[in-house]
Amino acid sequence: MDDTLAITTARQQWAQGTRLLEQLRAEDPFAAARCDRVVDGILDELARQVGQVFTILELAHAYRRAEDWAAAIAHRLAADAPVAWQLSLVQDAAFDRYARGARDYEP
């Protein structure tokens, strides 16, 4: 996949995760709080895997490999909250938030 397309696709998915989390926050604050806990766990893992200095492309590459470890974090941190296992919500929202720290981030 072309790098530009990979970045564009990933950023669209990440933004959708943030929108889903905000929608959940309005509808069910308790469930959103469980998701926030998972997002924080994924952010911690991103800091370990990607580091503090990175580009959007490097983050997009990490995103392609994140499903297994992100799912493990979700199940560990929210074992009783299946809504927080939805990677299209928690993983994508975490990547969207982390992307803001990229050297080449543009809103």
Number of helices: 5
Helix and strand run: HHHHH
Query: How many beta-strand segments?
Result: 0
Oligomer: single chain
> Structural class of the secondary structure composition?
mainly alpha
Task: Describe this structure as you would to a colleague.
- 71% of the residues lie in helices and 0% in strands.
- It is mostly helical.
- It has one domain (3-99).
- Helix 1 (3-27) crosses helix 3.
- The chain is globular and about 35 Å long.
Helix and strand topology:
Blueprint: H1 3-27, H2 29-49, H3 56-64, H4 67-77, H5 90-99
Helix pairs in contact: 1-2, 1-3, 1-5, 2-4, 2-5
Structure in a nutshell:
By secondary structure, this protein is mainly alpha-helical. 71% of the residues lie in helices and 0% in strands. The protein is globular and about 35 Å long.
What attributes characterize this protein structure?
mainly alpha, 5 helices
